[in-house]
Amino acid sequence: MICSYIKNNNYGFVKLHAEQVYTYISEAALNSCKLRGANDPNNDIQLVSHTYLSPVVYANRLTVTTLIELIEYLEELVNYPKFFFLDFEHIISIQKNLKKHFNKLEELIKNNDSKLHFINFNIDIETSSVENNLEYLKNFSHLNKANSKKILNGIEFETLIETSRSIFQSENHKRLIDSFVPQTPPYLHESSSVYLTTYFDFTRFISKDFFIYYCLYNLALKMISKNEYHDWEITPSKNIVLFCTTLNGSYIGSILGDLLGADLFLIDHLGPINKIYSNSQFCKIDKSASYIVVSDVLCLGTEVKNSKSIIDFSGAKYIGNVSFLRIESRKEEDIDFNDIEFYYRITNEYNPVNYKILTALDKSNE
Q1: Which residues make Cβ contacts (< 8 Å) with residue 207, sequence separation at least 6?
Q2: Three-class secondary structure assignment of the chain
Q3: What is the pLDDT of residue 180?
Q4: I need a labelling partner for 78 at 20 to 30 A (CA). Which of 97, 260, 270, 298 fits?
Q5: Alpha carbon distance 256, 216 (integer Å)
Q6: What pTM was computed for the model?
Q7: Contact by Cβ (8 Å): 98, 61
Q8: Rounded to the nearest 5 degrees, what angle is found at the Cα of 132, between the Cα atoms of 127 and 137?
Q9: Mean pLDDT of each 10-residue bin along the chain, 366 residues long
Q10: Which domains does the chain have, with CATH numbers?
């Protein structure tokens, strides 16, 4: 599975760290070892557990399995870009004996009239041990600020990095917009008693290929530490559980749980407000844990509010919510940014699909 490949006509990029993270998760699932805390994603031999010595998104060692996956993917690829870039950001070590795989990768790209370059390569080749000799990597093209203009016909390195971001944002935007389905007339959102003019089809977004994994990898990186939107931190010492109440939310939560080393609490819909407090499933909530509510789409936040009430009622701690798509129904000045995270957000200032929330009082809802 390769999830991070993005391209335009001239440039193609693969984020090796994203691919390596999912390699580790796949190998962990196959091993199905339940030894809690017995793993380190930066070792060559990897055992499995859902709680790791560190969240899997901190894995930083490139292994042979990831390179083999990439080679197999490229063997099926058509329409190679003019330049092919391997992005080594967050990779600080490489498994030994990968020379033949790197050589095969370069030959494959060259045979398809493309040129291979390394970017964000920060591994110290000179100090690598004799056993793990990385001298062969000097034979590859390493792009940096000093040589980028010469190799890429005048293109600055910063421009190249910005181009990679632009390609990702463009691909991301296109897929998201294609997944919005206009509703005529607007449909009634039962739990919030409002009418919505657009429906986000999460199933459509995830059905094409593995790009959703790259999206959730980027979301996990945003979730791991404090930032402008939330105060929580996800570390092995903190008992954090992802609280999922829908099938789509559970899909997102299961992947985020693997990436972050967090446990899951899964239940398919909370049900009517008059019954949720008597649901026997909620007695299984761990009072010593901190909970993050996971949603595919967060609009008015009714389900998050109900989830928070259940978590608080059970004696556990609610620390925030994360959603793949967040529809901001409040003004910026009315939002207390300390407990939210999102992958994509629609606001009054940025609303490319003309998303509207209506009531029976709106004339446009007639």
Answers
A1: none
A2: CCCCCEECCCEEEEEHHHHHHHHHHHHHHHHCCCCCCCCCCCCCCCCCCCCCCCCHHHCCEECHHHHHHHHHHHHCCCCCCCEEEEECCCCCEECCCCHHHHHHHHHHHHHCCCEEEEECCCCCCCCCCCCCCCHHHHHCCECCCCCHHHHCCCCCHHHHHHHHHHHHHHHHHHHHHHCEEEEEEEEEECCCCEEEEEEECHHHHHCCCCHHHHHHHHHHHHHCCCCCCECCCCCCCCCEEEEECCHHHHHHHHHHHHHHCCEEEECCCCCCCCCHHHCHHHHHCCCCCEEEEEEEEECCCHHHHHHHHHHHHCCCEEEEEEEEEEECCCCHHHCCCCEEEEEEEECCCCCCCCCCEECCCCHHHC
A3: 96
A4: 97
A5: 7
A6: 0.89
A7: no
A8: 75
A9: 94 97 85 49 42 74 96 95 95 92 96 95 78 85 85 86 95 95 89 89 93 97 94 88 93 95 81 54 80 94 89 92 94 84 94 92 71
A10: 6-170 (no CATH), 182-365 (3.40.50.2020)
Q: Which of 315, 305, 253 is nearest to 283 (CA)?
A: 315
- Is there a cis peptide before residue 272, judged by omega within 30 degrees of 0? no
pLDDT at 129: 59
* Residues 349 and 192 sit within 8 Å (Cβ to Cβ): no
Which pLDDT score, from 0 to 100, does residue 81 have?
95
Encoding tokens for residue 129? Answer: 């041990």
